[in-house]
Every structure is written in structure tokens, then in C-alpha cells.
Amino acid sequence: MKKILVVFLFLSGCASQPVPIVQRFPSIPQELRNKCNPLITIDKKEVSIVEFTEVVAKNYTQYHTCSAIVDTWQEWYTAQKKIFDSVEQK
Hints:
Structural class: mainly alpha
Shape: rod-shaped
Number of helices: 2
Number of strands: 0
Strand content: under 5%
Radius of gyration: 29 Å
Largest sheet: none
């Protein structure tokens, strides 16, 4: 009976001790730090206007798509980080 009482007192003492929890804002995963793909180049001396226009259109689309993704991600991350930092940690 004494052993049960000692175990009970020991466990109740451990349970009443607060455990500090430190929250940390997650860092950016490496997958989201990837750079945009390089733009297409033409390595010929003579190029038809059709081929030139296709390459320009593909580069334009690729650049603006990647730029929108990167800008939106950075904007979201910065806003979330500000919110996280503004909340009082207990």
C-alpha cells in the first residue's frame, strides 16, 4: 500500500509541472525555393518568324507563370510570418 501511495504522489507531482512549449514558424521547404526554369533560346543563325514567335510566346508564358507562383508564395509566407510573430507566445 505504501508503494502505491509513493507512486501516486510521484506521478501527481510530475503531472502538475508545466512543460514549456516553444512554437517556431516553419522554414521554407527546399522544394519551394526552386528557381524558375531557364528560358528557351534559339541557337541558329537563321530563324523563321514563326519559330521566333513561338519561342517568344513560350518564354513569355513560362516567365509570367513562374513569376506569379513565386510572388504569390513569397507574399503568402511573409503575411503568415507577420501574423505568427504578432501573436503573443505564452
